[in-house]
Design goal:
291 residues, alpha/beta, 12 strands, globular, membrane, UDP-2,3-diacylglucosamine diphosphatase, Calcineurin-like_PHP
Protein backbone atom coordinates (compact mmCIF):
# COMPACT_ATOMS: atom_id res chain seq x y z
CA UNK A 1 0.00 0.00 0.00
CA UNK A 2 1.34 3.43 -0.88
CA UNK A 3 0.21 6.92 0.11
CA UNK A 4 -1.73 6.05 3.23
CA UNK A 5 -3.75 8.88 4.77
CA UNK A 6 -1.91 10.43 7.74
CA UNK A 7 -4.01 8.80 10.48
CA UNK A 8 -3.82 5.37 8.92
CA UNK A 9 -0.10 5.77 8.39
CA UNK A 10 0.38 6.18 12.11
CA UNK A 11 -1.80 3.12 12.66
CA UNK A 12 0.23 1.25 10.06
CA UNK A 13 3.49 2.17 11.80
CA UNK A 14 2.42 0.43 14.99
CA UNK A 15 0.69 -2.51 13.29
CA UNK A 16 3.78 -4.67 13.91
CA UNK A 17 3.40 -3.70 17.55
CA UNK A 18 5.21 -6.56 19.35
CA UNK A 19 8.49 -5.03 18.21
CA UNK A 20 7.47 -1.61 19.54
CA UNK A 21 7.18 -0.96 23.26
CA UNK A 22 4.72 1.64 24.54
CA UNK A 23 6.22 4.72 26.15
CA UNK A 24 3.70 4.46 28.99
CA UNK A 25 4.27 0.89 30.23
CA UNK A 26 1.19 -1.24 30.58
CA UNK A 27 0.01 -1.21 34.15
CA UNK A 28 -0.37 -4.87 34.98
CA UNK A 29 -3.02 -5.03 37.65
CA UNK A 30 -4.08 -8.22 39.36
CA UNK A 31 -7.57 -8.18 38.03
CA UNK A 32 -9.08 -6.06 35.29
CA UNK A 33 -12.74 -5.09 35.41
CA UNK A 34 -14.32 -7.56 33.01
CA UNK A 35 -17.29 -6.77 30.81
CA UNK A 36 -19.09 -8.59 28.04
CA UNK A 37 -18.85 -5.52 25.81
CA UNK A 38 -17.19 -2.10 25.84
CA UNK A 39 -18.10 0.82 23.60
CA UNK A 40 -15.84 3.86 23.34
CA UNK A 41 -15.80 6.67 20.79
CA UNK A 42 -14.76 10.23 20.06
CA UNK A 43 -11.19 9.74 21.24
CA UNK A 44 -9.86 12.30 18.73
CA UNK A 45 -6.30 10.93 18.55
CA UNK A 46 -4.12 13.52 16.85
CA UNK A 47 -5.52 16.44 18.87
CA UNK A 48 -4.49 18.06 22.14
CA UNK A 49 -8.07 17.57 23.31
CA UNK A 50 -7.68 13.79 23.60
CA UNK A 51 -7.36 12.79 27.25
CA UNK A 52 -4.81 10.02 26.63
CA UNK A 53 -3.90 9.75 30.30
CA UNK A 54 -7.38 8.67 31.39
CA UNK A 55 -7.90 6.51 28.31
CA UNK A 56 -4.63 4.61 28.85
CA UNK A 57 -5.69 4.08 32.48
CA UNK A 58 -9.08 2.81 31.30
CA UNK A 59 -7.53 0.40 28.79
CA UNK A 60 -5.13 -0.94 31.44
CA UNK A 61 -7.88 -1.62 33.98
CA UNK A 62 -10.62 -3.14 31.85
CA UNK A 63 -11.20 -6.04 29.50
CA UNK A 64 -14.09 -7.39 27.46
CA UNK A 65 -15.10 -10.12 25.02
CA UNK A 66 -15.97 -7.47 22.44
CA UNK A 67 -14.93 -3.85 22.08
CA UNK A 68 -16.56 -1.40 19.69
CA UNK A 69 -14.68 1.72 18.62
CA UNK A 70 -17.65 3.89 17.68
CA UNK A 71 -15.96 6.52 15.52
CA UNK A 72 -13.90 9.69 15.68
CA UNK A 73 -11.06 7.56 17.04
CA UNK A 74 -8.47 9.41 14.94
CA UNK A 75 -9.07 13.05 14.08
CA UNK A 76 -8.09 13.24 10.42
CA UNK A 77 -9.52 16.78 10.10
CA UNK A 78 -7.07 18.18 12.65
CA UNK A 79 -4.17 16.02 11.47
CA UNK A 80 -4.57 17.39 7.96
CA UNK A 81 -4.20 20.95 9.26
CA UNK A 82 -1.43 20.32 11.75
CA UNK A 83 0.39 17.07 12.46
CA UNK A 84 0.18 16.29 16.15
CA UNK A 85 0.87 12.74 17.27
CA UNK A 86 2.43 12.30 20.73
CA UNK A 87 3.87 8.90 21.73
CA UNK A 88 0.90 8.32 24.05
CA UNK A 89 -1.39 8.20 21.03
CA UNK A 90 0.68 5.34 19.63
CA UNK A 91 0.37 3.73 23.05
CA UNK A 92 -3.41 3.76 22.72
CA UNK A 93 -3.28 2.15 19.27
CA UNK A 94 -0.76 -0.38 20.67
CA UNK A 95 -3.13 -1.28 23.51
CA UNK A 96 -6.09 -1.73 21.15
CA UNK A 97 -4.07 -4.01 18.87
CA UNK A 98 -2.79 -5.96 21.87
CA UNK A 99 -6.38 -6.50 23.01
CA UNK A 100 -7.20 -7.88 19.57
CA UNK A 101 -4.21 -10.22 19.83
CA UNK A 102 -5.33 -11.36 23.31
CA UNK A 103 -8.63 -12.44 21.78
CA UNK A 104 -10.97 -9.46 22.18
CA UNK A 105 -13.18 -8.99 19.15
CA UNK A 106 -12.57 -5.39 18.05
CA UNK A 107 -15.03 -3.65 15.73
CA UNK A 108 -14.05 -0.20 14.47
CA UNK A 109 -16.85 1.94 13.03
CA UNK A 110 -15.26 5.11 11.57
CA UNK A 111 -17.00 8.41 12.26
CA UNK A 112 -16.90 11.74 10.43
CA UNK A 113 -13.52 12.86 11.80
CA UNK A 114 -11.94 9.57 10.70
CA UNK A 115 -13.94 9.26 7.49
CA UNK A 116 -10.63 8.52 5.68
CA UNK A 117 -10.94 5.04 7.21
CA UNK A 118 -14.44 4.51 5.74
CA UNK A 119 -13.17 3.23 2.34
CA UNK A 120 -11.65 0.34 4.33
CA UNK A 121 -15.04 -0.79 5.71
CA UNK A 122 -15.40 -4.54 5.38
CA UNK A 123 -11.66 -5.06 5.83
CA UNK A 124 -9.76 -6.53 8.73
CA UNK A 125 -6.76 -4.55 9.93
CA UNK A 126 -4.38 -6.04 12.50
CA UNK A 127 -7.27 -8.02 14.00
CA UNK A 128 -9.58 -5.00 13.94
CA UNK A 129 -12.80 -5.36 11.90
CA UNK A 130 -13.64 -2.10 10.14
CA UNK A 131 -17.39 -1.73 9.58
CA UNK A 132 -19.79 1.02 8.51
CA UNK A 133 -22.23 -0.04 11.26
CA UNK A 134 -22.93 -3.16 13.30
CA UNK A 135 -25.63 -5.05 15.15
CA UNK A 136 -24.95 -6.20 18.67
CA UNK A 137 -26.96 -8.87 20.51
CA UNK A 138 -26.90 -8.40 24.28
CA UNK A 139 -26.65 -11.31 26.74
CA UNK A 140 -30.37 -10.94 27.50
CA UNK A 141 -31.37 -11.03 23.85
CA UNK A 142 -31.82 -7.42 22.84
CA UNK A 143 -30.65 -6.37 19.39
CA UNK A 144 -28.79 -3.04 19.26
CA UNK A 145 -27.77 -1.05 16.23
CA UNK A 146 -24.26 0.42 16.59
CA UNK A 147 -23.18 3.44 14.56
CA UNK A 148 -21.19 6.64 15.02
CA UNK A 149 -24.17 8.95 14.59
CA UNK A 150 -23.03 11.73 12.25
CA UNK A 151 -25.49 10.21 9.77
CA UNK A 152 -28.21 12.15 11.57
CA UNK A 153 -26.56 15.53 11.05
CA UNK A 154 -28.13 15.60 7.59
CA UNK A 155 -31.53 15.52 9.28
CA UNK A 156 -30.48 18.40 11.49
CA UNK A 157 -28.35 20.56 9.21
CA UNK A 158 -28.86 23.67 11.32
CA UNK A 159 -26.97 22.06 14.18
CA UNK A 160 -23.92 20.76 12.34
CA UNK A 161 -21.71 23.05 14.39
CA UNK A 162 -21.95 20.68 17.32
CA UNK A 163 -19.91 18.12 15.37
CA UNK A 164 -17.00 20.45 16.06
CA UNK A 165 -17.41 20.28 19.82
CA UNK A 166 -14.35 18.04 20.05
CA UNK A 167 -12.29 20.38 17.95
CA UNK A 168 -9.43 22.34 19.46
CA UNK A 169 -11.06 25.52 18.17
CA UNK A 170 -13.82 25.02 20.70
CA UNK A 171 -11.29 24.79 23.53
CA UNK A 172 -9.41 27.80 22.20
CA UNK A 173 -12.69 29.73 22.23
CA UNK A 174 -13.39 28.73 25.82
CA UNK A 175 -9.87 29.79 26.83
CA UNK A 176 -10.30 33.11 25.04
CA UNK A 177 -13.59 33.62 26.86
CA UNK A 178 -11.85 33.26 30.22
CA UNK A 179 -8.99 35.50 29.18
CA UNK A 180 -11.30 38.24 27.89
CA UNK A 181 -13.37 38.12 31.06
CA UNK A 182 -10.27 38.48 33.25
CA UNK A 183 -8.75 41.25 31.12
CA UNK A 184 -11.99 43.21 31.17
CA UNK A 185 -12.26 42.84 34.93
CA UNK A 186 -8.69 44.11 35.35
CA UNK A 187 -9.55 47.13 33.21
CA UNK A 188 -12.63 47.80 35.33
CA UNK A 189 -14.96 47.03 32.45
CA UNK A 190 -18.29 45.33 33.08
CA UNK A 191 -18.73 41.65 32.43
CA UNK A 192 -19.28 41.44 28.70
CA UNK A 193 -22.05 39.71 26.78
CA UNK A 194 -19.77 36.95 25.55
CA UNK A 195 -21.10 34.99 28.52
CA UNK A 196 -24.64 35.62 27.33
CA UNK A 197 -23.69 34.33 23.89
CA UNK A 198 -22.11 31.28 25.50
CA UNK A 199 -25.21 30.63 27.59
CA UNK A 200 -27.37 30.91 24.50
CA UNK A 201 -25.14 28.37 22.81
CA UNK A 202 -25.42 26.07 25.80
CA UNK A 203 -29.21 26.37 25.80
CA UNK A 204 -29.18 25.55 22.10
CA UNK A 205 -26.86 22.65 22.85
CA UNK A 206 -29.25 21.22 25.43
CA UNK A 207 -32.12 21.39 22.95
CA UNK A 208 -29.95 19.93 20.22
CA UNK A 209 -28.85 16.95 22.32
CA UNK A 210 -32.41 16.08 23.29
CA UNK A 211 -33.62 16.38 19.69
CA UNK A 212 -30.66 14.37 18.40
CA UNK A 213 -31.36 11.52 20.82
CA UNK A 214 -34.98 11.49 19.70
CA UNK A 215 -34.06 11.38 15.99
CA UNK A 216 -31.56 8.54 16.49
CA UNK A 217 -33.99 6.50 18.64
CA UNK A 218 -36.76 6.98 16.07
CA UNK A 219 -34.45 5.70 13.30
CA UNK A 220 -33.67 2.64 15.44
CA UNK A 221 -37.39 2.10 16.08
CA UNK A 222 -38.11 2.24 12.37
CA UNK A 223 -35.47 -0.43 11.77
CA UNK A 224 -37.17 -2.67 14.34
CA UNK A 225 -34.21 -3.02 16.71
CA UNK A 226 -34.47 -2.82 20.50
CA UNK A 227 -31.96 -0.02 20.84
CA UNK A 228 -29.13 1.98 19.42
CA UNK A 229 -25.57 2.76 20.52
CA UNK A 230 -23.84 5.82 19.11
CA UNK A 231 -21.33 8.55 19.93
CA UNK A 232 -20.64 11.75 17.99
CA UNK A 233 -22.24 14.40 20.22
CA UNK A 234 -19.88 13.91 23.18
CA UNK A 235 -22.71 13.37 25.62
CA UNK A 236 -22.98 10.00 27.35
CA UNK A 237 -26.56 8.97 27.99
CA UNK A 238 -28.91 6.06 28.63
CA UNK A 239 -32.47 6.97 27.71
CA UNK A 240 -35.71 5.16 26.94
CA UNK A 241 -37.94 6.06 24.02
CA UNK A 242 -41.12 4.54 22.66
CA UNK A 243 -41.70 3.87 18.98
CA UNK A 244 -45.22 2.74 18.05
CA UNK A 245 -45.74 1.47 21.58
CA UNK A 246 -42.46 -0.46 21.64
CA UNK A 247 -39.51 0.43 23.86
CA UNK A 248 -36.37 1.66 22.06
CA UNK A 249 -33.28 2.26 24.17
CA UNK A 250 -30.82 5.03 23.31
CA UNK A 251 -27.21 4.67 24.45
CA UNK A 252 -24.43 7.15 23.87
CA UNK A 253 -20.92 6.19 25.00
CA UNK A 254 -19.77 9.83 25.28
CA UNK A 255 -16.17 10.83 24.50
CA UNK A 256 -12.55 11.03 25.71
CA UNK A 257 -12.15 14.79 25.24
CA UNK A 258 -14.48 16.19 27.88
CA UNK A 259 -16.54 13.51 29.61
CA UNK A 260 -14.09 10.56 29.46
CA UNK A 261 -16.80 7.92 29.50
CA UNK A 262 -17.34 4.40 28.22
CA UNK A 263 -20.50 2.36 27.76
CA UNK A 264 -20.29 -1.21 29.04
CA UNK A 265 -22.47 -4.31 28.95
CA UNK A 266 -22.20 -6.56 31.99
CA UNK A 267 -22.36 -10.33 31.55
CA UNK A 268 -26.09 -10.36 32.37
CA UNK A 269 -26.83 -7.79 29.66
CA UNK A 270 -27.10 -4.81 32.00
CA UNK A 271 -25.80 -1.62 30.42
CA UNK A 272 -23.90 1.11 32.25
CA UNK A 273 -22.01 4.32 31.50
CA UNK A 274 -18.63 4.46 33.26
CA UNK A 275 -17.30 7.92 34.14
CA UNK A 276 -13.61 7.11 34.22
CA UNK A 277 -12.39 10.18 36.15
CA UNK A 278 -14.77 9.16 38.96
CA UNK A 279 -13.59 5.53 38.80
CA UNK A 280 -9.97 6.68 39.16
CA UNK A 281 -10.85 8.96 42.11
CA UNK A 282 -12.66 6.08 43.82
CA UNK A 283 -9.71 3.74 43.23
CA UNK A 284 -7.19 6.28 44.59
CA UNK A 285 -9.32 6.78 47.67
CA UNK A 286 -9.54 3.05 48.44
CA UNK A 287 -5.81 2.65 47.76
CA UNK A 288 -5.06 5.45 50.24
CA UNK A 289 -7.32 3.75 52.78
CA UNK A 290 -5.51 0.45 52.29
CA UNK A 291 -2.10 2.12 52.71
MN1 LIG B 1 -18.34 12.65 15.11
Amino acid sequence: MTELPSGLEALHNVANFPSIKPTVPERITGERLRFRTIWISDIHLGTKGCNHELLIDFLDHTDSDTMYLVGDIIDGWRLKKKFYWPAEHNDIVWRVLKRAKRGTRIVYIPGNHDEMVRPFCGMNFGGVEIRRAAFHDTADGRRLMVLHGDEFDTVMLAHRWLAFVGDAAYHAMMKLNNWVARARKALGLPYWSISKAAKHKVKNAVEFISKYEEVVARAAGERGVDGVVCGHIHTAEVRDFFHEGRRVEYFNDGDWVEGCTALVEHFDGRMEVLHWAEEVARRNKSERKAA
